[in-house]
Each structure stands twice: as structure tokens, then as C-alpha cells.
Amino acid sequence: MQVTITVNGLPYTREVEPRLLLVHFLRDELNLTGTHWGCDTSNCGVCTVQLDGVPVKSCTVLAVMADGHEVTTVEGLERDGELDAVQKGFMECHGLQCGFCTPGMLLTARWLLDREPHPDEGTIREAISGQLCRCTGYENIVKSIQRAAEL
Amino acid sequence: MQVPAQFEYARAQSVSHALSLLDRYGPEARVVAGGHSLIPMMKLRLAQPEALIDINDLSELSRIEVEGGELVIGALVRHAELLASAPATGLFPIFQDAERVIADPIVRNRGTVGGSLCQGDPSEDLSAVFAALRATAIIEGGDGRRSVPIRDFHEGPYETAVQAGELLIELRVPATPGTGSAYVKVERRVGDWAVAAAGAVLSVAGGVIERAGIGLTAVGAEHFCAPEAEEYLTGREPGEEAFAEAGRIAAEHCSPQPDQRGPADYKRHLAAELTARALRTAMERI
């Protein structure tokens, strides 16, 4: 069936099978491979994207369910060549090692800071508790989000 | 890569449209909302519906309101919305206790109250919460709406009173003032299913317990409740002794199954201990 999904501000119309998952629509149809594909069971959170501004795990959303909706991926965080504050925070505080969890972490961090501009450490840890960092780099991820809040 | 089997997809525009779609696609169609139970099962081919009816656009099912002395929670309310709802958690802190430990914040953004109940997983938390609260489920089908007491809603693991062609509309909880409530869960790690959990709802009048509600998760309690323990508490003075005995009675009447989350005797121990703890906290909150 035909769907039109607005991704990072641009509408994309594609013919898809209803069983196509949003993560594969983004990666395989649109070539937006910044969204990673991990456990496939909505546990690890590397596939996290924003659907209508709210973080969701895109391995557990069908592309057809996003028809007519807006999706933001990590590729949509920068504005006019300028990195988002969360991206700068992760750069400055070494918030990534292998980078596999980073896109999802960035989108959740952006959402958190939009709702709560100066979260305490506990709030940050709670917000990212549905996402696994395989390098166990949580200390620096938390610091990166705290830094982003200052930027 | 986990890929569901093929199915047809239709998006409902209203409750009546959803019902007509369910009628058109027949008994092998399934309703999808958050999809966080159904889609993983479809990916594992444990579920192979012929059609999905998407109800995410039915905003009339997203309300949380106090109406005519009842708290009304729509089936499409997301876990995150219930957790953040001042009317719901103000009346019944049990919702906050339970929602904080259901999966993780990202899953809670998508998963729904109605979906959790309709999935009917024996380890699902809200089933015990609504059982403790003695909620009523409102179900709509071709013949109109009907009310089902939540303790008749779950007919067995993964089986509910919602029949083919019907849709769960909302949950209604009597908004009794002067009620204390709490939910306590033991899990192996953050966001996991419960090893065991217990919910309690208490009201006290004239120094004795007027009404007690006890919900149990993942311990094989029939209809997620503990009527024998509730009966024991009714008319008694609230206190440690009564709560411990209620826990003992609740544990005696459940039938936990050993699995990777623990042996049966451990789960039975938890049922007793967590029931007493939930009752204690509920009492403190009156």
C-alpha cells in the first residue's frame, strides 16, 4: 500500500508491504542508516526515532502506522549545517565509543531537554533506561546530556 | 531479521468504523494500538493475524477523566500518559507505582492501557492493578456497549472477554475518596516482567477496614485477585498482623509456575510478602 511519511521535514511517498517495519523503511527505502537496528525485540532501543516528536522504538512500529505522520531521525537533528546541542554535548564529553546506541540516545536526549531543559542526573538516567549502551558508557552519556543542557 | 507474516492493514477513523472493519475482516483480524505486545508476537510468528485494524487515530479512546463519580481511562491511553496523569495518580497512586515499572519510558510512550489488558499476559501489571481497584471494562460490539467487571475480564492466559468483532473502549474505576492504594513489584532487572507483584487498595471506616482490594501479578492468581485475603481483611483493624495474615492467605490461594524468573516457592513467598507491603503502603496513603 502507498504511504507518505514526513521524515526530517521532507515527505516521502513509497509503496510498501504492511508488514514492513519503520526501522527498515528508514534504512532500506530511504537509505537513512543513522537509525540502527539492534535486538529487533524493542529491548535495546538503538532503533529509537521520534514519531510526531515522541521517541519510539522503530523496530516495533509498522511503516504503515506512520503514514501521514512525522518522523525525526538522527539525520534530522542538525539545522543548517549546525549540529544540535545534544550532538555537541556527546562530542565534547565523549558520549560515544562504538556509536551503535548513539542515534537513539541523541533523539531521546533531545526529547528530554525539550520537555525539561535542566534535568537532574536521575531524570536523565530514567529517560535513557530503555536504551542499552553496549560499551557501558553511561557515565559519559549522562555527562553529555548534562553538557547539552548548558549549551 | 524478524518479519511478520503477510497481513492486510486498515486504519479505523472512528469506533463504529473500527467495528465495521472488524466485521468485514472477520475473526482472524486483530486490533493494533501501541503494538508492543502484538507486533513482537507477529515477528516471532506466534501470532499471524490476517488483518490489522489500526485504532491509533481514535482520539475518543484517549481520555482520562473523572465522570459521574468514576475515573474513566480510555483504552488508547498510553502508559506514559497514565503515569503523567494527575487525576489518575492523584486518586490512585497505585497507577504511578505500576506504570513506573512497566517496560521502559520509550515503550511506555507507545504501549497502551487497553492493549496491555487485552493481551492478557499472566505477568502483565495493569491487570492486577485494575483487579485490585475493581474496575469495570466497557466493551463495544455490533450490538452496542456492555460492561464487564474486570474480575470477569480475563478468562485465562491471553484470553479475555473481548470477543471477535468487539473493541475494548475504556476502564471505569469507582473514584471513592479516602482510598489508599499501592503496587509493589520484584523484577530481575529494570523494565522486566515481574517475578511477582502485588497491588492493594484499602478504605477504612470507624477504625476497621471497610473494603480491601488485592491484585496479584505473575503468580497464577485466578483473575489476578485474592478474594479470600480481601474477605479476611474486611471488618478487621488494619495493622501489621492483619496485613501479614492477608499475605499468607493470598499466597496460599495462588499457584505460581516455576520458570526462568524463579521457582514456585520463591514466587509464593513473594506473593505473601509483597501483598503485606502493598497493604502497608496503601494504608499509609489513606
State the main characteristics.
heterodimer; A: 151 residues; alpha+beta; Ubiquitin-like (UB roll); DNA polymerase, domain 1; 5-stranded mixed β-sheet; 5 helices; 33% helix; 15% strand; B: 286 residues; Uridine Diphospho-n-acetylenolpyruvylglucosamine Reductase, domain 2; Uridine Diphospho-n-acetylenolpyruvylglucosamine Reductase, domain 3; Enolase-like, domain 1; 3 domains; 5-stranded antiparallel β-sheet; 11 helices; 34% helix; globular; oxidoreductase (chain A); Beta-grasp_dom_sf (chain A); metal ion binding (chain A); 2 iron, 2 sulfur cluster binding (chain A); Carbon-monoxide dehydrogenase small subunit (chain A)
Give the terminus-to-terminus CA distance of chain A. Answer: 43 Å
What structural category characterises the helix and strand content of chain A?
A: alpha+beta
Could you give the order of the helices and strands of chain B?
EHEHEEEHHHHHHEEEEEEEEHHH
Number of domains of chain A: 2
Number of strands of chain A: 5
Protein name (chain B): Carbon-monoxide dehydrogenase medium subunit
InterPro entries (chain B): CO_DH_flav_C, CO_DH_flav_C_dom_sf, Diverse_Substr_Oxidored, FAD-bd_PCMH, FAD-bd_PCMH-like_sf, FAD-bd_PCMH_sub1, FAD-bd_PCMH_sub2, Mopterin_DH_FAD-bd
EC number (chain B): 1.2.7.4
Organism (chain B): Nonomuraea soli
